[in-house]
Each structure stands twice: as structure tokens, then as C-alpha cells.
Amino acid sequence: MSNLPKLQAAAADIIRFAFPHIRAQAEAKGGKPAAFYFRFVADFYAAAPDGISQEDIDRQDGTLQDALWSGEAAEYDVPVQPSNPDGDNWLDGQSLLYCLGYELSEQAACIGEETGDDTAYDTARADFENAVIAAMQQCDREGVFGNRAENGLLLFAYYADVDDEHKPEAEQLLHRSAKALNGKKGYDRIVAVGTEQ
After folding, report:
1. Which of 8, 39, 59, 106 is least surrounded, with the fewest CB atoms within 10 Å of its CB?
2. Mean pLDDT of 96-124
């Protein structure tokens, strides 16, 4: 049985919770979110939602990518919804998405240790990434992000530690998610580097 439905449901819950927090914080500073995204790291299950304002992009006089990689963009404070607020284990204080991803990662690592094959871990990572993308699509259909044709909000996911940079461009999370979640103009705006915008 696939883990995708549970992962997708947990990711959708985080998005429904996080996006209003990010939007409110951007508006409190007199701006608006230009993009909502999940920032991944090598431990894929630690992916976190975030956003970037148009003002942060403009401040860099460049592209969305320039603003993300500059380290100057504001990071929004999105409280974690603990999976078990009454628990005494460190994992209880993490989100359900984190816990499900961590469990998936641990299972895959055990399989890899037994077999000497990393395929299970790569599959777990891909399942997690795909669940986040599917959850963003679901929340977009639900209207969580408002009318994106009007507000121009971009959606994507990427590895902040360039963990998938060795892959062909079409297989990188940034490109896959930007293509799945946006039209061509939005995709081009997300992946543009330097002064390509």
C-alpha cells in the first residue's frame, strides 16, 4: 500500500495552516506573498513551508532564484503543529508530515542496510516529494491560495542544500514542481537565474 495518501493529507494540512500565517505576515509588512514553497534539505522529511514576497525579490534586483539564494529574503514564522503535543519523545513535537516522512526514511534505510541497495530510500524520497506537490495541487483546487490568476502567486518546492543538483534538470524537484504547479510563464519566472526574468 502506498504512503502517498497519508503523506499528501498531512502536507495539505500543513499548507492550509501555514499559508494564512505567511500571507498575514507579508501583509503586516505592507507586502504580499509572491510565492509559496516547500524548502527541502537532504533529510527530505524536514521539508518546511515558506514564502517570499515580491518586495524581497525586488530588493535583489534580480530573479526569484536570486532572492532565494541570497539569504536576504524574509523567512516567515510558521508554528509547528506537533503530531502528539502530550508526548515526551522528540518526534512527538514534530508535524505529522515530518513524522510520516521520518518513519518512511527509517524503513527505507533499514531495507538499504539489509540489501546494500539505496533504491528504497530514493523511492521514499520521491514519494514524499510527490505527496507535497500533490498536496499543493489539491490546496490550489480548494482555493487555499486565492485566485492565482489574479494574485500571481507562484508555487514550487526545492532543495535549499542543492541535494538534487546532480540530476538532469527535468528530474530536479524545483523544475518538476514548478512545471506541475504553474503555467509556462510562472514556471519560467521560478527557474530563471541571473537577469533572465
Report:
1. 106
2. 87
Alpha-carbon span 142 to 139, nearest angstrom: 5
Vertex 57: Cα angle to 52 and 60 (nearest 5): 135
CA dist., res. 94 & res. 102, Å (int): 10
Share of the chain above pLDDT 90, in %: 46
Residue-level pLDDT at 1:
41
Sign of CA dihedral 152, 155, 160, 166: negative
Phi, psi of 159 (to 5 degrees): -95, 115
Long-range contacts of 122-127 (CB under 8 A, 24+ apart): 124/3, 124/44, 125/44, 127/2, 127/3, 127/4, 127/7
Does an H or E element contain 67, and which? helix 64-70
Q: What is the DSSP letter of 118?
A: T
- The 8-class DSSP code of residue 74 comes to P
Residue with cell 498531512: 10
Tell me if residue 45 falls in helix, strand or coil: helix
Instruction: Please check whether residue 155 is in contact with residue 52, taking contact to mean a CB–CB distance below 8 angstroms.
Output: no
Q: Is the pTM of this model over 0.85?
A: yes
Higher pLDDT: 142 or 61? It is 142
Sequence-ordered list of residues with C-beta below 8 angstroms from that of 154, at least 6 positions apart, any chain: 34, 35, 36, 37, 64, 178, 181, 182, 186, 189, 190
- 28-32, 133-137, 138-142, 178-182: least confident range: 28-32
Q: Are 39 and 166 spatial neighbours (Cβ–Cβ below 8 Å)?
A: no
